[in-house]
Automatic annotation (TrEMBL):
Mg(2+) binds at residues 535, 537, 540. ATP binds at residues 385-387, 409-414, 498, 513, 524. It comes from the Bacteria. The lineage of its organism: Bacteria, Pseudomonadati, Pseudomonadota, Alphaproteobacteria, Caulobacterales. Residues 24-81 form the Acetyl-coenzyme A synthetase N-terminal domain. Its EC number is 6.2.1.1. It comes from Phenylobacterium soli. Residues 83-465 form the AMP-dependent synthetase/ligase domain. CoA binds at residues 191-194, 309, 333, 521, 582. One of its GO terms (cellular component) is cytosol. This is Acetyl-coenzyme A synthetase.
Length: 647
């Protein structure tokens, strides 16, 4: 392997940070010595109606399996995100909205946001929504999406946000699964200049959802959409008949806050349920630490609120911390590939957080669209969603951040509520491609296939031996599935499904899903490792690697490679890539098949779906599995048509 470059903590970050290295280490020691004191302090960052005395009550064991945090505490999430800031920060901007059209942006202060949330809460109440009822939200990235989530939280309704890119079938499945009676949507959405027919999709979905009695429609484009009398209402017709004051519902810390379905990278999405107190404490704590956040700084997380990243780092974490949070309706490459950076300049974004898929896509377009912008306001960069290849990390660092901005590579899952492993900008030296170390209170462990605990520098299956407040509490409606999926593989531990390597400095490197590990002639190889090597080649924009049955080696290495826009596919570049991987990793890792792919199958959150690529590589075309979360099904047809020759 090539030498790993280490980026030390810049002195100014160590100085200004909430936690420098010594303080980080002290916090980790304190969790061990005085867990109750430590976790009580984490709870103190929230405003409680009744402060909890029961702090942590958890067992991962089958006999008495339960997870409770702050179990006798009473609070309301919307109060923590809004009301408590009004006295001192009522006129501060809470939300900057950047529309798909680059000429349109608006701002909402905390006072304005508070009034809008209360109004929508009252509208929901008037429609009969009560504490504990489920509400499905299917909206574009407009401030009303955050308003709708917070309005549910205010009255104790449980929201289920469905990403606006999902099809009618996927919406219907998610509505039926949690049995919502009310849907909040918009006439249409706009993404990259294209219209998304949200209301029409909902109409189609509701043909199989007889339980839905009301649909509230926000006007986004003003398009004419069919309205079913008695069921469908424009929000603009409802909002003026209610007050903009609404008493918050007192909620137990363990009352549900939301249900959210996972991305579907590995199979049918799971309805992850998060609760009120622990989730908010963890979202807020991690937002402050990982981004070294101070109230009023302009924070932009590009994730859609349809994903957990949008829940925790567009809405709940930032607003709980009195942030100015950016909500972006568009896409990275519209109208041009400079868009992200233009938005950063326009709104003086200080902290920018996005996904490797976006970074790789922009890197593919070269440096010029980045360099056309200033980006002087940016101090810190972040990434989440997939392992980031060192090559993409270095580009992000060098070109986007001009070597001035630390990068926080945050590893976490829908199930974990918020970040579990990440560098802290004032405490952790960076290694490109590593999510570095656990946050205080997080206890990762590597085990082998039989559950034997692995020590030292080694590869293994990533578990967590103890709980943290933001942990999911159940799979909605299927508690047995919750236990079976996460706690039965290695008894007494939470199994993440991810593989990881720990290096000699105790840094963690996520190697991909454990299911994606390839075994070539007895060598266990993480797909991320080979992909990183491929992307490290000048001609390659993106790569996905899977195994397929191979008579001699057990498994062969099948690589799908997307070349940069200015590179033509050829046999010579194929040979070159094979040599390249041999040199970077070792001869045993040399690809058996390289297929050039103009696009890769991705979930709608932008993650590569290796499960489908594996089926294509195995020639098992009748069995592609659940493709409902695929962003662009046409990509699969091309891959099938051009699938490579085995050797
Ligand atoms: P499903 O569980 O339905 O298959 P999913 O796992 O893609 O979908 P998410 O909860 O959105 O759904 O994603 C969590 C996963 O994303 C992690 O388990 C990990 O594999 C990957 N991931 C997230 N952040 C990082 C990161 N910083 N580095 C490496 N991998 C990451
Ligand atoms: Mg997952």
């Amino acid at each position: 392997m090539s030498e790993v470059e280490v980026f030390p903590v810049p002195a100014e970050w160590a100085k200004r940070a909430h936690l420098d290295q010594a303080a980080y280490e002290a916090a980790c020691r304190r969790v061990e010595a005085d867990p109750t004191g430590f976790w009580t302090d984490v709870a103190r960052r929230l405003d409680w109606m009744t402060f909890p005395t029961e702090i942590k009550d958890v067992s991962f064991n089958k006999e008495d399996f339960h997870i409770r945090w702050y179990g006798d505490g009473i609070l309301n999430v919307s109060v923590n995100c809004l009301d408590r800031h009004l006295a001192t920060r009522g006129d501060q901007t809470a939300i900057i909205w950047e529309a798909d059209d680059p000429h349109i942006s608006t701002k909402l202060t905390y006072k304005e946001l508070h009034a809008r949330v209360c109004r929508m809460a009252n509208v929901l109440k008037a429609k009969g929504v009560r504490k504990g009822d489920r509400v499905t939200i299917y909206l574009p990235m407009i401030p009303d999406a955050a308003v709708a989530m917070l309005a549910c939280a205010r009255i104790g309704a449980v929201h289920s946000v469905v990403f606006g890119g999902f099809s009618p079938d996927s919406i219907a499945g998610r509505i039926q699964d949690c049995d919502s009676k009310l849907v909040i949507t918009a006439d249409e959405g706009l993404r990259g200049g294209k219209v998304v027919p949200l209301k029409l999709n909902v109409d189609e979905a509701l043909k199989t959802c007889p339980g839905v009695t009301d649909v509230i429609v926000i006007r986004r484009t003003q398009a004419e959409v069919p309205m079913t009398a008695g069921r469908d209402h424009f929000y603009s017709d409802l909002k003026d008949s209610v007050s903009d004051r609404c008493d918050p519902e007192p909620m137990n810390a363990e009352d549900p806050l939301f249900i959210l379905y996972t991305s579907g990278s590995t199979g049918k999405p799971k309805g992850v349920l998060h609760t009120t107190g622990g989730y908010l404490a963890w979202a807020s704590y991690t937002h402050e630490l990982v981004f070294d956040y101070r109230p009023g700084e302009v924070f932009w997380c590009t994730a859609d609120v349809g994903w957990v990243t949008g829940h925790s780092y567009v809405v709940y974490g930032p607003l709980a911390n009195a942030a100015t949070t950016v909500i972006f309706e568009g896409v990275p490459n519209y109208p041009t590939s400079s868009r992200f950076w233009e938005v950063c300049d326009r709104h003086q974004v200080e902290i920018f957080y996005t996904a490797p898929t976006a970074i790789r896509a922009l890197m593919r377009e070269g440096d010029a669209p980045v360099k056309a912008t200033s980006r002087k306001s940016i101090r810190l960069l972040g990434t989440v969603g997939e392992p980031i290849n060192p090559e993409a990390w270095l580009w992000y660092h060098r070109v986007v951040g001009e070597e001035r901005c630390p990068i926080v590579d945050t590893w976490w899952q829908t199930e974990t509520g918020a970040t579990l492993m990440s560098p802290l900008p004032g405490a952790t030296a960076l290694k490109p491609g590593s999510c570095t170390k656990p946050l205080p209170g997080v206890k990762p462990q590597l085990v082998d296939a039989d559950g034997k605990v692995l020590e030292g520098a080694i590869n293994g299956n990533l578990c967590l031996t103890d709980s943290w407040p933001g942990q999911m509490r159940t799979v909605y409606g299927d508690h047995q599935r919750f236990f079976d999926t996460y706690f039965s593989t290695y008894p007494g531990k939470y199994f993440t499904g991810d593989g990881a390597r720990r290096d000699e400095d105790g840094y963690y490197w996520i190697t991909g899903r454990v299911d994606d590990v390839i075994n070539v002639s007895g060598h266990r190889l993480g797909t991320a490792e080979i992909e990183s090597a491929l992307v490290g080649h000048d001609g390659v924009a993106e790569a996905a690697v899977v195994g397929y049955p191979h008579e001699i080696k057990g498994q062969g290495i099948y690589c799908y490679v997307t070349l940069r826009t200015d590179v033509e596919p050829s046999d010579s570049i194929r040979a070159d890539l094979r040599q390249w991987v041999r040199r970077e990793i070792g001869p045993f890792a040399a690809p058996d098949v390289i297929q050039f792919a103009p696009g890769l199958p991705k979930t709608r959150s932008g993650k590569i779906m290796r499960r489908i690529l594996r089926k294509i590589a195995e020639d098992d075309l009748s069995n592609l599995g659940d493709t409902s979360t695929l962003a662009d099904p046409a990509v699969v047809d091309d891959l099938v048509k051009n699938r490579g020759h085995r050797r």
